[in-house]
Design brief:
The protein is of the alpha/beta class and about 240 residues long. It has ten helices and ten strands. About 40% of the residues lie in helices and about 15% in strands.
Length: about 240
């Protein structure tokens, strides 16, 4: 089975309280450490990679982001998925080609740009083109930015998710959705569901999110921020 097939299989048949936990490496050293810790796959966070390269979140040039995730993918044997924000304005075929050249098996694609939600129908059409170009070679995680952009009605998230799943998304990621609405989202969204786990002790644990309906749990740049906070107590 290909790495993409292995990665896709990790999302299915999971028992309650056992979501797929995908930590987010920001460079080769962190990726190797996470693999050594036993994680079966990794998902790079765009904000974490941006920070490691000296950019603000959302400010990384596409070429540097693809180069960074390529270094990570080459350095480890496990499948790696990449957060490539909103696709950097690339045509679907070129985006898929760049991802495959980087050696990743999946990608995270968000439905807002510049802090503004995209038209969901137009975004779904674009996702469908990405799906056609990728075939089964990439696992598409469709990020839904409604809660992140102040749209707190869960029905709006579910409506967008349905369009994206119909377009071929393998997984839906309602970023910043509160845990309290997770059961409702789970009942209304078909297929794997990605949720964000906080690293500051607030909110449910990954197992708790799994019990509420999450299939997959990611941390965004949380691991990088945790590592940076640990430096504050060093003797001077």
């Amino acid at each position: 089975m290909s790495k993409a097939g292995v990665f896709r299989a990790l999302h299915h048949g999971r028992p309650l309280r056992d979501p797929l936990v995908l930590p987010g490496p920001w460079d080769v050293a962190s990726a190797r450490a996470l693999v050594a810790a036993g994680f079966p796959a990794l998902a790079t966070p765009s904000a974490g990679v941006a920070a490691s390269l000296g950019y603000a979140d959302g400010g990384t040039p596409a070429a540097e982001m693809f180069a960074a995730v390529a270094r990570i993918a080459r350095a480890v044997e496990v499948p790696v998925s990449a957060d490539v924000e909103d696709g950097y304005g690339l045509a679907p075929g070129e985006l898929v080609e760049r991802l495959l050249e980087a050696g990743v098996v999946g990608c995270n694609l968000e439905d807002s740009s510049g802090g503004v939600l995209k038209d969901p129908h137009e975004h779904a059409e674009w996702l469908a083109e990405v799906r056609r170009a990728a075939g089964d070679r990439l696992f598409l995680n469709a990020r839904v930015d409604t809660f992140a952009r102040g749209v707190t009605d869960p029905d709006r998230t579910i409506e967008r998710a349905a369009l994206y799943v119909a377009a071929g998304a393998d997984c839906v990621y309602p970023i910043d959705a509160p845990a309290a609405v997770l059961p409702l989202l789970r009942s209304g969204i078909e297929g794997p569901l990605n949720m964000y786990a906080r690293m500051d002790g607030e909110g449910p644990s990954p197992a708790g999110l799994g019990e509420l309906g999450a299939t997959r749990v990611t941390f965004g740049p949380g691991l990088l921020r945790l590592a940076l906070r640990s430096l504050h107590g060093l003797p001077r």
